[in-house]
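Researcher: Please translate sequence to structure tokens.
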Amino acid sequence: MKCQAIAAGHGQHAVALMCRVLGVRRSTYYAWRRRPVCARGQADRRLLTHIRVIHGESDRTYGSPRVYRELRERGMVCGRHRVARLMRSVGLRAKQANRQPRQRTVAARAPAAPNLLQRRFQAAAPNVVWVSDLTYIPTREGWLYLAVVLDLYSRRVVGWAVGRRMSQDVAVAALDAAIGTRRPPPGLLHHSDRGSQYRNPVYQAQLAAHGFRSSMSRAATCADNAVVESFFHTLKTERVHGKRYQTRAEARSDVFEFIECWYNPRRRHSTLDYLSPAAFERAHGT
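Model: Translation complete:
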């Protein structure tokens, strides 16, 4: 199963890294690759291809029970335990498992803001444009959800928060932290995706109370919020991937160390002429 997981991740991650994380010798993995695949293994690979397609079509919201039902509807003969085993082997899971139904209902009613940012990822001064998003970090206790707010001027993380659920509470906490730290003037442009956390009336009311303008990405267009996506890629590539957090508290401590002790004050950013966000702000007198 470990070798199958490494093979599934080939092309996305280095084989050496995956072998080290999973505790498999590279020689063992390559020997496994050279073995002829049995009929059952070939059938599993074909079935996994269909599972990936269905999981992607659902925007990663389907767990094994719904994927199994969809496979059967498409005329494929398989067992639900087999589907669950294959999904576990490559880390496919339901994205919305911890969301509350009430949050989804609010998201369906709340209107999205227009895309005022229009991929203009530069700002002339601090506290002119902020961008926000959420991601998740795996731990043995379950997912830890991280919400961040970045200032486009310096790419600095000006506010962040973590929580056990991907709800508006963690998003609002990150926004409150950013406001408390930076004290921005009215007129700031706040950009996010169209997630329920940002369309929620509580979040929108907080923006309005401070005179901020709300902007949102187009539907299913993550490139409209590319700066935050890039930050999450950096966080996961440079810190999260390859780690096994035992608890959410351990993951939170590591996120704190990465953001507050490394990324903001020290990590050199190519967009900032290889200055760190904090150094860039100091160099420009802000």
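Researcher: Any highlights?
Model: The chain is about 50% helix and 15% strand.
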